[in-house]
Each structure stands twice: as structure tokens, then as C-alpha cells.
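Protein record
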Amino acid sequence: MPINAFLFSLFMKPTVHGLSKNKSVHLFFKLPTTVKENRVYYIPYKFRRVENLHILLWLIKDACWAINLKIPALIMILPTLFVALAITWQTRQITSELLHNLAIDFWITANCTWMIGEFTGWDTNLVGKYGLREFSLIPFGIGLLILGYYYLFFMHRSDFEEQLQQQTDAMNHKEASRSGK
């Protein structure tokens, strides 16, 4: 079994080995599987490069935070957030990507708010007993609401699969025509 099919089976259709193929054990809940297993999702290479750069920037920022390098960590907020917003902008034509990337933008904002609070001593008792750590729950909550909307309402629409395919194809066609390929 290819690794991607194995991982898909773990997360989307958990099964217990040794049982017949038609028996499965669902852990707590089964995630909706509206997109066909045989479809391949792809994004332009230049988008993937930006996403990989973003991971590097985010890891550097958080590593600096973890080892208490205040100035480098604070400096890394700008490129990390800027690249996250660029990713959101470049994939805005695909609703599922837009909503997930918006949630990531809010997650990074919350993460940076919390980090600033720890570095400045404002993580508690800034306004009454609340500090930036508690205020970081606001962007975390906004991100969760966005993803909650996506998974509870948007993903279950009857035209979800078709719309996702159309949006992905349109974005890839547009990017291919820009690069002249």
C-alpha cells in the first residue's frame, strides 16, 4: 500500500488490522470524505516554495522564542506574518485554501501576541487579571470559527467537490498562463 493511501486510511477511515475489509472502527467521529480518493490536488511549484519558506520562517521565530532570543524573535514576526498573508493572497481563488490560510494567519497573530506578552512581561495582569496571553485567545478563536464554518457548513455542500476542482483548475491554468507554459 503506498504511504499516501496508508496515511489517508489512518486519518480518514481508521480500520483495525486483521478484521475483514468491510469492518472499520471509527475513533470518536468519522471525518467527511467528499473528495474522491483518486483525485490529485496540486498547486503551482512557486506557491509550494513560498509555503516551504513560511515553515522555515515560522520555525526560526518560534526557536528564537523558545531560547529567549527576544530581538531575533520579534524581528521574525514581520517576515513570518508577511509570507503567511502572501500565501493567503496567492491561494485566494480556492475557498478551502483561503479559509485554512486565514486561520493560519490568525494563529500566527495569536502566537506573536502571546510571544510579545512573554517578552515584555505583559502576558498577565495587563488589563485587570488579563494579559496578552489571554488576549491571544481572540485571534485563536477567530481562526477556530473560520475552520468551524468550513468543516461544519461549507465542506458538506452538495457542490463542494465540483467547486473545489473548478477553483483549483482555474488557479492552476491562470498560473500556467502567467509563466508561459
Observations:
- The chain has two domains: 1-41, 43-158+174-181.
- The two ends are 34 Å apart (CA to CA).
- Residues 53 and 167 are 24 Å apart (CA to CA).
